[in-house]
Amino acid sequence: MKISYAWLRDYLKLSLPADELAEKIERTAVEVDGVIRPSEGLKKVVVGHVLECVPHPDSDHLHICQVDVGEADPIQIVCGAPNVAAGQNVIVALPNSWIGNHTKIKRSKMRGEVSNGMLCALDELGFDEKLVPKEVADGIFILPADAKPGEPVFSYLGMDDEIIDMSVTPNRGDMLSMNGTAHELAAIYDQTPTMPTVDLTESSDDLADDDLDVTVQADEHDVPMYKMRLIKNVTIKPSPLWLQIRIWNAGMRPINNVVDATNYILMQYGQPLHAFDYDKLDGGKVNVRLAKAGEKLTTLDGEERDLLPTDLVICSNDQPICLAGTMGGLDTEVTDQTTDIALEGAIFDAVKIRKTAHNHGLHSEASMRYERGIDHSATQTALDAAAAMIADLGAGTVANGTVIGRDEDVQPVVVDITLTRINHVLGTELTADAVADIFRRLDFPTTVNDDTFTVTIPARRWDIHIPADLIEEVARLYGYDNLPATLPTGQPTIGKLNETQQAIRDSRKLMESAGLTQAISYSLTTETKAKAFAMHASEVTKLDFPMSSERSALRLNLISGLLDDLAYNIARKEQDVALYEEGRVFFSQPEQVRPKEVEHLAGAITGSLVPAEWGVAAKPMDFYQIKGIVAGYLKSLALADAVTYVASADHADMHPGRTADIYVGDQLVGFVGQVHPTTAKAYKVRETYVFELDLTTLIALPKERQQYQPISKFPSITRDVAMLIDDEITNAQVVDLITSKGGAHLQTVKLFDVYNGKHVPEGKKSLAYTLTYQDQNATLVDDDVTKAFEKVLSALTEEFGAEIR
Description:
Elements: E1 2-4, H1 5-8, H2 18-28, E2 31-36, E3 43-55, E4 63-68, E5 75-79, E6 89-99, E7 103-105, E8 108-110, E9 113-115, E10 118-119, E11 142-143, E12 163-167, H3 178-189, E13 202-207, H4 208-211, E14 213-216, E15 225-232, H5 241-249, H6 257-269, E16 273-277, E17 285-290, E18 296-298, E19 304-306, E20 312-316, E21 319-323, E22 327-328, E23 341-347, H7 350-360, H8 365-372, H9 379-394, E24 397-400, E25 403-406, E26 413-418, H10 419-426, H11 432-441, E27 446-449, E28 452-457, H12 467-478, H13 499-513, E29 517-518, E30 524-525, H14 527-531, E31 553-554, H15 559-570, E32 577-587, E33 596-606, H16 623-636, E34 643-647, E35 654-664, E36 667-675, H17 677-683, E37 688-694, H18 695-700, E38 717-726, H19 731-741, E39 746-755, E40 764-773, H20 782-800, E41 803-804
Parallel strand pairs: 13-24, 14-17, 29-32
Antiparallel strand pairs: 1-12, 2-12, 3-4, 3-6, 4-5, 6-7, 6-10, 6-11, 8-9, 15-23, 15-24, 15-25, 16-23, 17-20, 18-19, 20-21, 21-22, 26-28, 27-28, 30-31, 32-33, 33-37, 34-35, 35-36, 36-37, 38-40, 38-41, 39-40
Helix pairs in contact: 5-6, 6-9, 7-8, 19-20
C-alpha cells in the first residue's frame, strides 16, 4: 500500500520528516518497505512553453521546437513526439540535466539541427510505463495551461510528494485505505483526523429502482451486502490532473474519469467498487450467483476464462458479466461511448474471492482488499462518494436512491477486559486513566466500571474481537519499547545438544570429511520427483495452493533435489561435483491427518571425487567408492547389529545391476548405487552415484559402547589363500565364514584379487585373500597360526566347495 504524504496531510497536521513517520508506523503498526521520493536524482527538469513547432527539414517525424523555459531567449529543441504542438506547456530537460534511470541530457545535434535539451514523456522521468495514461503513452506529457515556464516541473506532476510504501499484514486490512491509515496515525499522534465528507445530490426525477433490477441468489455468507447506484448522462473523458496524480502515486494507472473515481474511492475508503456500462446490461437486470460448470467470461484484460463452480459472478439476465471482487467483464466495460453508469458496491466472502483470484491468476487491488477484509459499515458511504464524484467529473446526474440486492445490519463488537489482565500480560503498572486514554486515541468508545473496561469496537477495526486483541492495541500505543524487560523464570537447564541433534551435526562433519559439500534443496517439488527414489511406499502430500507447478508436493526423498543441484553445476561447466544433504522427507498414509517427518541423509557424486594432480590421476566415481563412504559413516555410528548390503533391482530410478539395499540387522535403512542412465539423462547429469539413509531409524537403533584398545606391540603373521569358487557365492559370505572359523587371533580379512577370465572354468571365479593374525598379549607361535588357517581352508572346502589353489 503506497501512502501519499501530501494526501495524509488532508487528514492530519503532520510536519515531521517522512522517514521519521515511516519509522513510527513500522514500530507501532505495520512494516514499511521504504519511503519513495519520485523526484530524487532528477535535476534541471523544468516547465517549458512551446512557442513554435515546425517539421524537421531532413526527417518525416522530427520537429524543431522553440521553447520558452523562463530564460531571456527561447531555446531550440528537436523532438520526435507525435503529439507535440505550439502553445503547449511541456516537460523540458535542460542541457546537463539528469532524468530517469540516471540519464544525463547534453546538447546535441539531430540530423544537423541543434537540440538544447529534451522534451520528456513521463516514463523518461522514471515513471513505470504501466502507470502512464494511455492517451500520452506514445508521446510527451502536456502540463496544465497555468504552469509557469522555467519552474521545476515536479510540483505539477506530484513528484515533490513522498510516498510511504507499507507492507500491510493480513490482519490489518483496515490500513489498505487512506481513512484507515489516518485513523491509525491519529491514534499514534493523538490527533482528531479530518475525515472526508460526501456531498451527494440526487435527481428528483429519476428513480434508480425504475431502471435497475438487482437480485442476489448466492448464499448470505458469500454475499452479505450488494448495492448499486445509477449515474446518468456522464461524459467520459480524462480525469483532472490532481486526480491522476493521486492515482499514479498510489501505484495505479489513470484510465478515465469514471474508472479513476472508483479507484480513488478504493484508495480512500478501502471499498472496491465496479462501474458497468448501464446500456450494456440486459434490461438493467443484475443478479449475483455462483458460476455454473462450462460457463465462460472474457475479463477486462481480454482473456477468456473458464469459470469454476466456486466463482462468484455478477450476471445480467443470468449471463456472467463480472468476476465478483476480482475483475470486470469486457462486454460491460466503460468506454468513450458510455453515457450511463451502473455502480456496484458490495461485500463478498474473503475465502471465495481468494480462491477465485488464485484459480484465475487475477490478484487485483480489489481482491487483495476483499481477502483481508472490508469495513462493512462504509460500503454505502463509499458508494455515495463515488457516485457524487463521477457525476461531478462527468457532468452527470445521480438517480435517486440506492438499489439494494441485499443489505446487512452492521453492529459494533463489544469487548470487556480488566486493567489487572492488561497489566499482568504486559508486565506493566498502567493506570486506568492511561488505558482509557489509549482507547480514546483509538476512537473506541469505552465505559469503565471498577477494574473493567467495556470497549465498543467500530466496524472499521474488524480485526479486534477478543480481549487479547485489545491488549495488543494497548501495547502498540503505549510503545513496545516502553514495556519492561525481564528474564524468564524457571529451573535453568544445561545448554547442550540432545542425542538426535548431536548425531545430525556429526553426520554433517563426517560427510564433509569424506569430501562432500553440503547442499540445501527445496522441500517442495513436483509430484513425479517427489515419488522418485522413495525408500518406502507412501502417499504424496500435495499443496492445495502451490506457488508454482514446480513446487506442488512435499518430497519423499532427498536425491531428486541433489540431482537438480548437480544439473545446475554441470550446466555451469563444473564436472566434478560431490554433494550431500541432511533434511526431512514427508511420508503420508491415507488415514494420517498430516505427513510424518523423517530425517534423511543423502549424497550424490558425479565425476571424480579426487581431482587430478601432479603424479595422481583422476579416478571416476564408482560403486565401491560411494559404498566405502557409506560404510565408513555407518561404522562411525557403532551400530550393535551387523550392516549388510543386498543387491537390489527394485528401485526404478536406480541401475538394476549397481544398486544395493542397506540393512542393519533386519532393518532396511537405505540404499546406495548408480542412478539409472535414463533417469540421469532426464535430469541432464552424467554418470552419477547416490545414497540415501534413514537417519531417524539409524539414530534409534541400538549402539555398542566404543572402548579404547591399545595397538599390539607384538608382531603380526599373514597367510594368503586363493580359491576357485562358484560365481553365486559373494565376497561377504566368504569373509563371514573366514571370520567365524579363523580363531581368536584373526584380526583382518582382505580381498586382494578377483579373476574370472582365461583358465577359469565357466561359472567359477578366483578369489584371493590375505588373513592377518595378531595376539594382543604375546608373540604368536607359527604352529598356532597354521592350525587356525587350516580350519579356515577346511571350512571353505566343505561349505562352499572351494578349490584351494
